[in-house]
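Review box. Two proteins, two foldings.
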Amino acid sequence: MPIPADWPTTEAQALAEQERLRPLVQAVDDGPGERLIAGVDVAYDDDHDLVVAAAVLLDRDTLDVVEEATAVGRIAFPYVPGLLAFRELPAVLDALAALTRTPDTVVCDGYGLAHPRRLGLASHLGVLTGLRTLGVAKTPFTFHHREPDADRGSWTPLTDPATGEEVGRAVRTRAGVKPVYVSVGHRIGLDTAVRTTLDLARRYRLPETTRHADSLCRRALADALRTRTPSN
């Protein structure tokens, strides 16, 4: 898939775009009940300038896979911490567009408001598409938190050390297992984002949306590399 012609190509352009989009984020619940929830994830091969995104649509009640899609493209932006959305979003948008049904919510493997400029991938994706989004990350990035209690469902605020602002929550999805880091993306409140994450993480630390999307994009990347690499 081609990279959009107006996509930022420099760090200065990307920073300016984040500042432009940040006021458009809606950090409150907006929309009907959620039945179809998508997970999105991305895999790279920098040596081959290749990125593969996966979108997997699940039924919230059963956690069954309803539909899945992938998109293959060139890497759209160099690796710069805090600007990963510019690397990943073109392929993610293509994968979501390939679904025949529109998700009620999209769960991103990354950050939303838990971002230095309050516009991580989940928020950026939500503003661009109008979809309800949230971020579930594996690490707290640059933010602080106390360790939640050991019980499943326990959480503590994830705060910006510079301002004290709550930007997300460290959430224990399995008893005694290290937490995940949940933040608002767009059109969702933090309480709902935490509740949705727990609903999707009934057996494992990570939500089923993330687990399925991660597996699919890795398989699709391997397939793409096989088709591009001449056999011996």
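Next protein.
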Amino acid sequence: MKTAEEYQAGQVLLIDKPLTWTSFQVVNKLRWEIRQAFNIKKIKVGHAGTLDPLATGLLVICTGKMTKQIDTFQGQIKEYTGTFVLGGTTPSYDLETEVNEVFETKHITKGLIHSTTTQFTGDIEQFPPIFSALKKDGKRLYEYARAGETVEIKSRTVHVSEFEITKIDGLNIDFRIVCSKGTYIRSLAHDFGKALQSGAHLSALRRTKIGDFNVENGVSIDDFIASLKV
């Protein structure tokens, strides 16, 4: 068991984020639990890279003086696994919103799926989803989206070093992607569907690595809280 002084001096915690939790909720929960466990009034806690509520996997949490390293950790390459569903798009590019357009898929072969990945490796341009936490004019993009407001979003250059199709099960396409900071896998799913002359959205996403940190070494929120009470 670590001490209050160790948490304040700085720790890096690897948390396996559960489905539906926001990254902000995880940070708040861990901060509250550490304060309660050691009866301390204040402690800095932050995360090194947001995960969407519908994504699971590695969340790097920094405490105390290690929060100064957050920008360094955020800049490291990331690995994700997940599933695209072909034939339909959603406004959020994932399952946060319902399918709003349906497309033909009969022309899509396994060979076409595999060969299309080459269009999405190296430096690529992508538009962040309108349903995202990015800010424009002081408001988060998802606030505009939920209010039904149209807002101009600029594209950004990101880098995908590996894009592997790991399984094809009907319209469900499992993948593994290694990419730079700022890459939106939801946007990649949407653009991948377009490149197939169809549509696609993200149905599952799991972050497995950030730099040298691996989700295999992560713990659940409950297990972390239990460790504070040992």
